[in-house]
Amino acid sequence: MTQEPTSLLPVWARATTRRPKTTRRHPHHGAHAAAMEEEGANHRPAASSSSSGGGFLSGFCAAALRRKPITAHATHAASGEGLVRQLGVFELVLLGIGASIGAGIFVVTGTVARDAGPGVTISFVLAGAACVLNALCYAELASRFPAVVGGAYLYTYAAFNELTAFLVFTQLMLDYHIGAASIARSLASYFVQFLELIPFLKGHIPTWIGHGEEFFSGVVSVNILAPVLLIILTAILCYGVKESSAVNTFMTILKIVIVIVVVFAGVFEVDISNWSPFMPNGFKAVVTGATVVFFAYVGFDAVANSAEEAKKPQRDLPIGILGSLLACVLLYVAVCLVITGMVPYTLLGEDAPLAEAFAAKGLKFVTVLISIGAVAGLTTTLLVGLYVQSRLYLGLGRDGLLPLTFAKVHPTRHTPLHSQIWVGCVAAVLAGLFNVHELSHILSVGTLTGYSVVSACVITLRWNDKTTSCHSLGSMSIWQEGVLCLVIIALCGFVAGLCYRFSYATAFMIIALLIAVAAGFALQFRQVYVDPPGFSCPGVPIVPMVSVFFNMLLFAQLHEEAWYRFVILSLLAVGVYAGYGQYHAVPSSSDHPAVAYHGIPSEAP
Predict the structure, then answer these.
(1) How far is Cα 406 from Cα 392, in angstroms, rounded to an integer?
(2) Which end of the chain is more exposed for a tag (fewer CB within 10 A), N or C?
(3) Domains: count for the chain
(4) Average pLDDT, stretch 230-235?
(5) pLDDT value at residue 70
(6) Rounded CA gap, 460 and 467, in Å?
């Protein structure tokens, strides 16, 4: 649908002499692989020891700027050793809800309400609306590439280039690894608290079992239960997607039922006078609350990573993404209205506000339900998080950017066994030995990076340079001009976020907004857009542009150490790619016979 952009390589890089057609075959490739290697030999960086520095740089640029040629239907049928399509639309919706709603629904709603007052309800509505913009972008791309796993990494590879896709993967994966370990420790702590409801166990469970006991001045924090829980969930995921989906379905339904019961129990204790004033600290406190609770919705993107396991992906993936997000918005808003109506917002506790509110009303049985709901919520969040990680590793293993062992799928269980065990082991080590809660302030970088790039992917993949009547600016192609506009919008969003965070002069924020609008006009009127197959995000390019701007505004609200982490990890990722990825990547991996991509089934009912 889109034309390949003019090469981004400088002239000196494009004018390099042709390298000999050396082949690098994988032992499993066979004759077809030899032909593929012959065809792609000119696109691979030279690995000769006699290469000069300039040759290495030009080869690196050529490799880094490769794009993945994927079409929605051009996939090989499975040879019996691939992922299987077993997830229907109901399972996909519950997958998204399970990833999004953890114990936070019982905690963050009250903690933010202490600052925003009853207006926290508006905070969740605003954050939900912002997430809907991202979800619309994910829904379009999930429908456009329904046959291959990879999520944000895959979309970036197809829309931009190989190096950017690898950078997105590394940022996402650090969030996932640390997040899984942190959730596992929280789950272990909640599980121990739940056990201590039994009288003879109360106060007799050692701290090193579930709460964590520090050694060596806090450098090591031993937690035995967290790795055990991770091993159990990893085993379930390794056994099969049908079984792990059944566990997620049961736990998510249990969690939803508990939330609904809690809401109905609280409705009868609501005093509407507690809702006045509705925004006691002004609208700015509500907006600040929205930037905090935005991350409570994170998880709907997990549905996009189940592309190869959805029964009718082009239809069901958009429904799963948007349906799960809207369900989460309704549940969060209901809990906010109840908790701020039951108790004056000034009296809400910090650690367990919802439980304390019900205890103050004499409804202690509800606090038990809340504990069960918290355990169920953390379990599903952790389960889906481990599931998504393994599918991302599977995608990179297939593309050669990671060792081939990550690409292997069990012949009978149809799960990426090696990838799943790897992510489980990493999380178990982190959760068992370190207090990863201390690293929470550097999280969410990968999430916002992925959301921003995915929104930009929707725009670039809609471009059709063949029909544009606009002339390029100087040596810059229309495609490059569009990418530059996207970068300007992202930078303006970040600057506006800094102005808001540090209370700089409003004029600076207005200037940043005006520059972003000018770049948006250029994208609107200097590019030609085509409608994609399947689900189509409305309002392109406006909706994705607003999404990019708001995501970067949120990026500016993160802890400063999160910015340092973004830069340092990006540099490390470039080093890994330069030393390994550029030499082992298989640009045409979707045509590889050893990769068991399942074709897209008929969407007819």
Answers:
(1) 9
(2) C
(3) 1
(4) 96
(5) 62
(6) 15
**Element spanning 79, H or E:** none
Pick the closest to residue 453 from 147, 155, 129 (CA basis): 155
**CATH (domain of 304):** 1.20.1740.10
Residue 536, helix vs strand vs coil: coil
Query: Residue 104 — pLDDT band, cuts 50, 70, 90?
Result: confident
Reported confidence tier of residue 106, pLDDT bands at 50, 70, 90: confident
Question: 451 to each of 18, 51, 131, 148, 446, how far by Cα in Å?
Answer: 38, 38, 9, 19, 8
DSSP state of 581: I
In the structure encoding, which two tokens stand for residue 19, read together?
């390298």
Residue 200 pLDDT: 80
What's the one-letter identity of residue 396? L
Tell me the residue type at 504.
Y
- Sequential DSSP letters for 402-451: S-GGGG---TTT-S-HHHHHHHHHHHHHHHHH--GGGGGGGTTHHHHHHH
Residue 291, C-beta contacts closer than 8 angstroms, at least 6 positions apart: 127, 553, 554, 557
| Closest to 157 measured CA to CA, from 96, 221, 70 | 70
Q: Is residue 143 part of a domain?
A: yes
Residue found by looking up tokens 């049928």 in the block: 77
Do 460 and 2 meet the contact criterion of CB atoms below 8 Å apart?
yes
The domain containing residue 186 runs over which residues?
Answer: 87-437
Q: Would you say 238 and 381 are in contact if contact means Cβ atoms under 8 Å apart?
A: no
Residue 38 confidence (pLDDT) = 41
Q: What pLDDT, on the 0 to 100 scale, is given for residue 110?
A: 80
The whole-number pLDDT of residue 90 equals 94
Query: Is pLDDT above 50 for 3?
Result: no
* Residue 69 placed within a domain: no
> Worst-scoring range by mean pLDDT, 404-413, 474-483, 576-585?
474-483
Q: What is the mean pLDDT of residues 396-419?
A: 92
| DSSP tally for the chain: helices H, then strands E | 22, 2
In 143-265, the DSSP E strands lie at 213-215, 220-222
* Structure token pair of residue 45: 């960086």
pLDDT tens digits along 348-389: 876 678 888 888 888 888 888 888 898 899 999 999 999 999
Q: Is residue 547, in this structure, part of any structural domain at all?
A: no
Whether residue 370 lies inside any domain: the answer is yes
Residues 441/119, Cβ–Cβ less than 8 Å: no
Question: Using CB atoms within 10 A of its CB, is residue 25 exposed (0-12), middle (13-18) or buried (19+)?
Answer: exposed
89-100 vs 241-267: helix axis angle to the nearest 10?
A: 60
Q: What are phi and psi of 104, to 5 degrees?
A: -60, -30
Q: Which two tokens stand for residue 287?
A: 């907006």
Higher pLDDT, 475 or 432: 432
Q: How many other β-carbons are positioned within 10 Å of the β-carbon of residue 568?
A: 10
| Nearest one of 106, 101, 103, 102 to 353, comparing CA atoms | 106
Instruction: Decide if pLDDT at 28 tops 70.
Output: no
The distance of Cα 2 from the centroid of its chain, to the nearest Å, equals 25
Average pLDDT in the chain: 83
